[in-house]
Amino acid sequence: MISQQRVAGGSGRCAAGGRARGAAPLSAARQRTRTVRVRAGVVVPGDTVLVAGATGGVGQIVTAKLLERGYKVRALTRRAGRARELFGDHPNLTPAEGDCRDPASLAAAVAGVDAVCCCTGTTAFPSKRWQGGNGPRETDLEGTGNLIAAAPRSLKRFVFVTSAGVEREGEFPWIVLNAFGVLTFKRQSELALVQSGIPYTLLRPSRLTDGPYTSYDLNTLLKATSGGKREVVLSPNDDLKGQASRIVVAEAAVQALAAAEAEGRAFAIESVEGAGPGEDAAAWAARFAACAPAAAGARR
Ligand SMILES: NC(=O)c1ccc[n+]([C@@H]2O[C@H](COP(=O)([O-])OP(=O)(O)OC[C@H]3O[C@@H](n4cnc5c(N)ncnc54)[C@H](OP(=O)(O)O)[C@@H]3O)[C@@H](O)[C@H]2O)c1
Predict the structure, then answer these.
(1) Which domain holds residue 77?
(2) pLDDT mean over 38-52
(3) How many domains does the structure of the chain reveal?
């Protein structure tokens, strides 16, 4: 499978700021090649980022952080009114009403954007949120597939917040979580993104904490904290199962947009006690780089 080589070819967790245990370091020549190849593609302030699921838990924090840092945000949501409530009339915000199940509603939303951050999702088990035919298949497979298909091929980056367990859906506890297919569908969308040729980053959190925030505005959102759990653990493999703060995952998504080191990579992510990299781009780049995929031929 293409993804086994390109998406998940690592060999261990990454210590904060260090190299993945057992992962072969990239040769100097390979590192130089990699840097030159992707530097031109990183997203910079002033660029336009489409955030899908901008009013949801991770998406609302991604949107707030991007706006604070000078990016233009197109907020794809089924509830444009909610986007205005959350983010006010920020000059760099354009709500784009759309439903990922409806390709026609995505065309205008994606036109001219430089990057996409997909934070859409629904519940793993039947709930009110499935009403109207919006279960995991429709959201995580068809909806995300439509977004990938609609995205301009000139995108600098597509950051996809997916899930831990996508490569372990037959193992406990993931087998339970996957009873209605959420992990299978997310995995299929990961593969569609990889195969699209669009530069991508996959973020795979397990249980999310902190948020969604229902009564926050932009300034309050930016002040939300994850308490003491601000350190991030990344892994190139689908082998984490600890909790992840939505604030830390949102920061990872924003940093991944701008980090050459995160291009074409999958990161399992959790947040643990510690000060963490905060908003320091160099510290994040070091953490992404530390999760080097294993050398060709290495066993997982
Ligand atoms: N919750 C967890 O513990 C957990 C664990 C692992 C991975 N994840 C994944 O992490 C991501 C973020 O999770 P979250 O809990 O922060 O998200 P969330 O609060 O559930 O928000 C999901 C967003 O998706 C949007 N959405 C759903 N269906 C849509 C559609 N058909 N068209 C357009 N937008 C649609 C929702 O918009 P509306 O406001 O219009 O409904 C909402 O903004 C998701 O991919 C989720 O599956 C979550």
Answers:
(1) 2-290
(2) 84
(3) 1
